[in-house]
Amino acid sequence: MLGHAACLGIIGKNPAQGVRQLAVGSRKRRLNEDELRRLGPVMRQLAFEGEHPTGLAAIRLVLLTGFRRMEALGLERS
């Protein structure tokens, strides 16, 4: 966006010039039904074994909402 704004003359210089950009290719991989069926018992076992509850909650949130991983982990309780 900054590069486009610089090309249009809206800003004088792109302050992000030279910064490495993230890959833009979309990922289409999703868990199939069998993988989802296996995930539930595994997550329950991990909770029983003391896995961090916030991580498990984030996985549940991503599965139920479609959020990206960092969107889920970046949420704040308010």
Measured by DSSP, the beta-strand proportion falls in under 5%
Number of domains: 1
Tell how many strands the DSSP assignment holds.
Answer: 0
Q: Which whole number gives the mean pLDDT?
A: 87
Uncertain ranges: none
**How much helical structure, as a percent, in the residues?**
40-55%
Q: Give the biggest sheet.
A: none
| Molecular shape | elongated
Instruction: Tell me the quaternary state.
Output: single chain
Radius of gyration: 20 Å
Structural class: mainly alpha
Q: What letter string, H or E per element, gives the SSE order?
A: HHHH
First-to-last CA distance: 31 Å
Helical segment count: 4
InterPro entries: DNA_brk_join_enz (IPR011010)
Protein name: Tyr recombinase domain-containing protein
Quick description:
Helix content is 51%, strand content 0%. By secondary structure, the protein is mostly helical.
